[in-house]
Amino acid sequence: MGEEQRARESAALCGHLLQSAWYQAAQVVGAYWPMRREADVTPLLKDAIARGKTLALPLVEGSRAMSFRRVPSLDVLRPGAYGLLEPEPGLDVMPAEALSLLIVPVEAVDRRGFRLGKGGGYYDAYLPAVRCPTIGAVMSWQWRDGIPLEPWDQPLNAAADADGIHLFEIGYKERNGVL
Fold first, then answer.
1. How crowded is residue 177: how many other Cβ atoms within 10 Å of its Cβ?
2. Number of H helices and number of E strands within the chain?
């Protein structure tokens, strides 16, 4: 995938997310700082701050451990794990149950809502505590058939891509109708 395609698809999926009822209603938005191969959701991060929503981004704290920290401005981000920008450690922790929406990065996702990440297990460990809608940010080339499942895998509720937002039946049922 070239940078032009990434930019085009990222802009379209961010547009769908920003217009969604979930985002509009969310008071506390959990998201991520994008790696080069992931959807660039920085327009959503900037919009959340501009609208006065509470933005929370992950801070890696150890093996398979991360917390989401309140980010009042993108200026409080610093280089952290894996070369990504992360919140400063002293920022307020936002518990999983405080999130009203969580935008999740994917390496690959299938039509059931199961995702593959980078292999560190951070989201696998975090997602079971999340009670809000979870939406994967998906580039067109990240859709796959039949992601292999492990016992700890948690389905997402939906995915946003350049074409729109797609609901996953399994993820909806697994999260007890939070949508």
1. 8
2. 5, 12
Res 126 pLDDT > 90: yes
C-alpha 55: how far from its chain's center?
Answer: 12
Could you identify the residue written with the tokens 């959807």?
Answer: 39
Burial of 12 (0-12, 13-18, 19+ CB in 10 A): middle
Do the strands 77-79 and 85-87 form a parallel or antiparallel pair, or are they unpaired?
antiparallel
Task: Identify which of 146, 141, 179 has the alpha carbon closest to the alpha carbon of residue 162.
Answer: 141
22-32 in b/e burial notation, b at 16+ Cβ within 10 A?
bbeebebbbbb
The 8-class DSSP code of residue 83 comes to G
Residue 135's beta-bridge partner residues? 103, 158
pTM to 2 decimal places = 0.92
- CA 23 to CA 44: how far, in whole Å? 9
